[in-house]
Structure formats: structure tokens, C-alpha cells
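Q: I'm a student working through a structural biology exercise. My instructor gave each of us a protein and asked us to get a predicted structure, then write a short paragraph describing it. Mine is GMP synthase [glutamine-hydrolyzing]. I'm not confident about reading structure output yet, so if you can add a plain explanation after the C-alpha cells, that would really help. Here is the sequence I was given:
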Amino acid sequence: DWTTGNVIEEQVAAIREQVGDRRAICGLSGGVDSAVAAALVQKAIGSQLTCVYVDHGLMRKGETEQVEKDFVAATGVQLKVVDAEERFLTALKGVSDPEEKRKIIGREFIRVFEQAQAEIIADEGPAVEFLVQGTLYPDVVESGGGTGTANIKSHHNVGGLPEDLEFQLIEPLRKLFKDEVRMVGQELGLPEEIVQRQPFPGPGLGIRIVGEVTKERLDLLREADAIAREELTAAGLDRDIWQCPVVLLADVRSVGVQGDGRTYGHPIVLRPVSSEDAMTADWSRLPYDVLAKISTRITNEVRDVNRVVLDVTSKPPGTIEWE
Ligand code: XMP
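A: Happy to help. First, here is the predicted structure for GMP synthase [glutamine-hydrolyzing]. I'll explain a few features afterward.
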């Protein structure tokens, strides 16, 4: 019989058996999959698990705090947070090309994660043999089903560790679909904001600023995004929408009039979409009054933004993200 209780019980037993008295590492992204995978492994082996969260400074408002505070409070997990905002912003300085941004963010992410990994191993000894991954059933099918070990090259070796660290993978979500993962997360008592979180790209807000990524622009976009999310939630629309990227056109300016005078500010784009699997998507027909509320609030509350526009493009031809 499939129940979330059975799934949890079965996985906890299997993980205990697999890990024994050794140790595991898990990277948290703020997303559902890694959170549920980590919570399951935590339930099975407790303090033998260490989680790593790389704060690249490209998260939305409140998301890092959700991981640092709420997730830790709900699970009791041992968490290492790496504040790498400076490093990512420095690496992204002067870069506007979307692919270039993605490459830089991906590269820096791996470097920071590996460094944290090496530090944990230096602290805890060579018994760190397992890496937890939130692989879902659709990912398993897509990649042909093979798995087992991951070779992680460590560029930042500490204390005479071998050049190539070999980890065995723990993938407790391998048989589950997304909705089942959410149910398991709920059963494990994870915060609603994490369990019901809509998809969010790994490169974060870095690919939602058209133009160069700076701290100032990120802060501005974070404000606009938080307002859009707040109003969509208040209108009860979270389940009707697959996701709603909020995009800052940092290199575009338009003329406006606000308060006493003329402004020359940036547009914010709302990109609400409905979709089954993100392969194709349609733009969501949001109620006009909700759009009006979001627009009014963003232009009133977010400095330097004097225009809000709605993306009415399906996928294809438009992708969901702008970059
Ligand atoms: P596109 O823009 O290609 O996005 O229509 C499809 C889905 O994938 C998400 N996305 C990403 N997710 N890392 C991720 O984990 C990425 O680099 C990435 N890029 C896009 C996007 O949010 C949408 O759900």
C-alpha cells in the first residue's frame, strides 16, 4: 500500500542499512527535492548528516532565512551555510550575456560547494562517504536509470585527502514523483513555504536581471518579486500558476511621472505561466484586479521602477525564464 508513512519508514530503514555508522553530506538549494531528501536522511541518521547551503546572494527575499531558520528548526539538521554573495557578485561583474552568467554561476557554485565539502571532511574525518541527492523518478527515467557513485574532483584539498573523492549516492526520492515528494515533505513536518515552493532556477535572480547583475539591482528585483508573490498568494492563485518569474529590464529605461515629476526608470516584467512540466507553457490569464494591485504596489514601493509589463507569450516560442 502506498502511503507517505510507508515510504518514509521504508526509506529510513534502507538509509540506515546503507550508511551504517558512516557519514553523509547533502547540498540544500532551497528547493523541495533537496529539502525532502535531506529531511529523510536526517530522520534516518541524525547527526551523521551535514547539510551545506551555498548562499550565492541570488535568492529571493526570505528564502535563505527559510533554509537557515525554518528548515533547521523543523528537522534539527546540522547545517553549514556558506555566505558567498561577494564571490558571486565579483565573478558576475560586467557580465550581461545570459549563457556567460549561467556558466559563471554554475562554476562558482561547484567550487564553493567542493570547498565546503572538503572542510567538512577535514573536520569529521574520512568516514564521510555518502552524498545525498534529491533525484526524482522522472530524472531517473530520463537518464537511463544508472547510478551509484559520483566522482567529485576536489580543487581545494585539505589535509592530504585523495585527489578524487568518491562518494556513494543516497537518493531516497528515486521512486517518487513531484507531488509525492511534496506529500512526504508535508508528512515530515517541513515548512509549507518549502514544500509548496514553485520551481526556481538554480542560477536564481541572476538570470532574471536582463543586463549586468549588481547588488543594487538584485535588491530592487527582490522587492518587486516579493510583492508579486505576496499578492498572488493573497489572491489564492498559487496552485493555478506553475511559476511567475519577475524580471528586471536593467538596461531599459522609460519615462514616467510619479509624485511631483518626471522619472526615468526601469520596467519590471511579470511572467506568470501555467504548465504541466515546463517543457511547454501558456501565459496565465490572471485576473485584471490582481495584476493592477501588483502593478500599483511595485511602482509605489520599488525605487527606480516606473512601469510594470505583462509577458503574454506562450512557450514555445518564449522560454519561461528570460535568460
Ligand atoms: P525555460 O526558461 O527553459 O525553463 O523555459 C524551464 C524550467 O526550468 C527552470 N530553469 C532552471 N532550473 N536550473 C534549474 O534548476 C537552471 O539553470 C534553470 N533554468 C531554467 C525554469 O524556472 C522553468 O521552471
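A: Here are two points you could use in your paragraph. The chain has ten helices and 13 strands. The longest strand covers residues 261-270. It's a good idea to check both against the output above yourself.
Q: Great, thank you!
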